[in-house]
Amino acid sequence: MRRGGSVDGIVLVAAVALALPMMIAAQPWQNCGSNGNYSANSTYQTNLNQLAAALPKNVSGSLFASGAAGSVPNTVYALAFCFGDTIASDCAACVGNAFPDSQQLCPYNKEVYIVYKECYLYFSNINFLASTDNAGVMNIYNVGNVTGDITRFDRAVTGLMNATAGYAAYNSSMRFATGEMVGFDDQTPKLYATAQCTPDLAPAQCWRCLDTMIGQWWQTFRPNTKGARSVGARCTVCFELNMFYTVAPMLQLQAQAVAPSPSPSPSPVVPGTAGGRKKNRPGKILAIAMPIVTAMLAAAVIGFCFWRRRRPARAPPQRPRPLSYPTKSSLLDWGRRLKIIEGVARGLQYLHEESQLKIVHRDLKASNVLLDSDYSPKISDFGLARLFGGDQTQDITDRVVGTGYMAPEYAMRGHYSVKLDVFSFGVLILEIVTGKRNSGSFNSEESGDLLSIVSDIERNVNAREHTHKQVCCEEPAAFSAFIHH
C-alpha cells in the first residue's frame, strides 16, 4: 500500500463556510454534499451501484476513471483517481472500498466526495464531468506547528509546490510529480510535495488548476502547519515534512535559494533631517505605480505594435490573430517565419533595453503574439508583466504564475529576469521553425515537450538528418537558407 504522511492529528477543514474544523483520528475524510437525498432501492441507488461495480475495474489501468449511469433526473456522475505512486491493485481496492464507505458515512446523500491516502472518489447528481473546474475539494492539514522563521518557511513551501506543480503539468504524461527541498534548517532538513491532475487535462488546464489551488493555499491553511493537502476532482497538491510518497523525488530544490525574512525596517526619516538620505526608492514607487502601469500597458498595447511604418486604414479591418491560431503551413513560408521571429525580437529588445523602465513580460508564448494580415507580430497580454527600475536586473517571487514557457530557475525557485523572456523566446522560435506546439509530439511514436525532443536530437548526431526532414523540411534548401540568414 502507498505510505501516507502524518495521519495522527489531521484536521478536516469543513467545506461549509464558518463551520468549525473537525478532529479526525484516521482516514477516510468525507464530505456529504448538499444536493439532497435519494431513497433506498430507488433508480438513483441502482445507477450508483452500477458505477460502484464499473469504476474499480476501470481505474486500475491509468489510476483514473470516470463515468455516468442512468438518465435525468436520476443520472449519477462519478470520478475516481489514485495518487500517482499507488500500484494498480491497491488503487482498485481503494476505489472499491470508497463506494460502500461513502454510502455508510453519508447514507442516501446524492453527492459525496471522500479522500483516502491512496485514492479519491466523487459522485453527484450534478454533471461536474462536463467541466474542468476543480469541484469537490477537500482540505486537510496537520495540527502540528513549525517554529522559527514562518515567513521563510511559507516561501519555501510555496516555491516547492509551484515547482512540483509545473513539473506535473508540463513534464509528466501522468500529470503527477513529486518534489523535495533539502537543507531548509536543522529542525526541518527536508520538505516534500506532490502535485497531480487528472490525466485527461491538457498541460495548460492542469497548470491553471494547480496554480489556483496554490494561490489560495495560505488563505486556506495556517501558515505554520507542518503539512497540508488540498484534494479536488481535477487536481491535488500536498506537502509534508516527512516523506509520504513511495517513489523517488522527480525534482529536488535547494533551500539555500530561499532567503531569510528581512528584519523590520526602522521608522522612515524625513529627507534633509539628521540621518536622512535623499536617495529615491524605485522599489517603493514601483509598488505603488505597478497596478496602474500594468493596466496602461494592457490598454496601450495596440499602440505599442513594433510596426515598421504606419499603414493606411483598410476596410473592413482584419482582426489580429494569435500566432497559435491554426494556419495553413503553406502560408507560413520561411520568409514570414523569419519576419515573425525578428519582429518579436525587436519587441523584446524594446521591453528589455529601450523602454524607460525595463519590462519583463513573464508570459511570452505563441498565443500572446498577435499577427496582422501581413504577418507583422505584436506582443500582447501584459497582465503578468513586471517592471524593473534603476539598476534592478532580477527579482524573486514566491508565486510562480503564467502558462507560457517557463525557464527552470523561474519554475523551480521563482527567480525571474529578462532571461526568462529570452528562454521563452527560444522555445517560441522552435515552435515557429518546426511548426509544432511545445506540448505536442512529432509523431505517434514520440511523446514529450518540444524542448525535450529537440534536446535529445541535439545529443544524437545520427538522428539530426532524419529529424530535419521530420520536423520542417519539405524544402531542405529553403530551411538551410533560413538558418544561415
Automatic annotation (TrEMBL):
The leader peptide range reads 1-26
Q: Does the keyword Nucleotide-binding apply?
A: yes
The residue ranges of the Gnk2-homologous domain are 26-128, 134-244
Molecular function (GO) terms for this protein are: ATP binding; protein serine/threonine kinase activity
What Enzyme Commission number(s) apply to this enzyme? 2.7.11.1
Q: Which keywords has UniProt assigned to this entry?
A: ATP-binding, Kinase, Membrane, Nucleotide-binding, Serine/threonine-protein kinase, Signal, Transferase, Transmembrane, Transmembrane helix
Q: Domain of life here?
A: Eukaryota
Domain Protein kinase stretches: 123-485
Task: Give the residue spans that cross the bilayer.
Answer: 285-307
Reactions catalysed, as given in the entry: L-threonyl-[protein] + ATP = O-phospho-L-threonyl-[protein] + ADP + H(+); L-seryl-[protein] + ATP = O-phospho-L-seryl-[protein] + ADP + H(+)
For the keyword Kinase, the answer is yes
- Region Disordered: what ranges? 258-278
Instruction: From the Swiss-Prot or TrEMBL record, give the protein name.
Output: non-specific serine/threonine protein kinase
What lineage does the source organism belong to? Eukaryota, Viridiplantae, Streptophyta, Embryophyta, Tracheophyta
